[in-house]
């Protein structure tokens, strides 16, 4: 494991250890390095602004000060490029513009050497994506979902019929290469799946949703999972 990757993993281990802390010996065992190397790494993290505390003696160890956040941001070049590739390959994903802005912030705070390596590696990753729906439509869908407000859409189905409907958004889902908005259709009085590319207009209304839940959507597609960051 390269040092920048070890520093990131070490900071995550300190965060997870909470108030009890973790010993230098345990960290050295985990990363298969010497205790001296771990202590040098801890000094490097502290010098970068991480609020590390230490407790000497039996049962002592190291940890992060309560309520503290980690300094930005220690990624390897490959990790940074993985984030860029994921967002670039899915420009029609919900909140993709916010994701791109977040990645720019990450790149801005990387150390210059890591950023230069990431930029070089990024040039070796190409994507070719199809045209996406308009930014205005996607913004309306994202706002309605986040604020849980009724969305008025003009929608053309697969068979070519066009209707105007009021939808209470419940879920975004990607399956078989298509993004869907799933919501309670007030016209049909039922849960419906709408292909995002079939939404020709979208307006967020002032009406609040009525609290329809994920359980009403039914079983997810095969291999579907939430996009949380807690590991897969």
Explain what this protein looks like in three dimensions.
The chain is an alpha+beta fold. It has 3 domains: 3-64, Orthogonal Bundle (Arc Repressor Mutant, subunit A); 77-122, no CATH class; 135-217, SH3 type barrels (Roll). Helix content is 37%, strand content 23%. The chain has helices at 3-17, 24-31, 35-47, 77-88, 96-109, 112-122, 135-147; strands at residues 52-55, 61-64, 149-156, 162-175, 178-185, 190-195, 199-208. Helix 1 crosses helix 3 (35-47) and helix 4 (77-88) packs across helix 6. The longest helix has 15 residues, at 3-17. The radius of gyration is 23 Å and the shape is elongated.
| Separate helix tally | 7
Order of strands in the sheet with the most strands? 6-5-4-3-7
What's the CATH class of the largest domain, please? Mainly Beta
Q: What's the number of extended β-strand segments?
A: 7
- What is the CATH architecture annotation of the largest domain? Roll
Q: Report on the biggest sheet.
A: 5 strands, antiparallel
Unreliable runs: none
Q: What would the principal axes of the Cα set say about the shape?
A: elongated
Structural class designation = alpha+beta
The domain tally reads 3
CATH topology of the largest domain: SH3 type barrels
Distance between the termini: 21 Å
What number is the mean pLDDT? 86
Helix proportion range: 25-40%
Helix/strand order, N-terminal first: HHHEEHHHHEEEEE
* Gyration radius, in Å: 23 Å
Kindly estimate the percentage of residues that lie in beta strands according to DSSP.
15-25%
């Amino acid at each position: 494991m390269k040092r920048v990757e070890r520093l990131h993993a070490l900071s995550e281990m300190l965060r997870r250890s909470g108030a009890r802390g973790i010993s230098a010996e345990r960290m050295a065992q985990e990363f298969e390095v010497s205790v001296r190397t771990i202590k040098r790494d801890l000094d490097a993290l502290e010098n970068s602004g991480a609020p590390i505390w230490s407790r000497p003696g039996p049962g002592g160890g190291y940890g992060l000060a309560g309520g503290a956040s980690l300094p930005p941001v220690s990624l390897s070049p490959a990790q940074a490029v993985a984030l860029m590739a994921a967002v670039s390959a899915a420009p029609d994903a919900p909140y993709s513009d916010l994701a791109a802005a977040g990645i720019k912030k990450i790149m801005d705070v990387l150390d210059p050497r890591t950023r230069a390596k990431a930029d070089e590696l990024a040039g070796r990753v190409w994507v070719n994506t199809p045209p996406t729906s308009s930014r205005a439509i996607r913004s309306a869908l994202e706002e309605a979902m986040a604020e849980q407000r009724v969305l008025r859409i003009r929608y053309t189905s697969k068979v070519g019929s066009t209707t105007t409907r009021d939808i209470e958004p419940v879920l975004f889902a990607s399956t078989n290469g298509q993004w869907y908005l799933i919501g309670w259709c007030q016209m049909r009085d039922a849960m419906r799946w709408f292909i995002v590319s079939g939404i020709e207009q979208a307006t967020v209304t002032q009406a609040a949703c009525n609290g329809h839940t994920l359980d009403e959507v039914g079983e997810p597609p095969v291999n579907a999972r939430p996009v949380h960051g807690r590991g897969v």
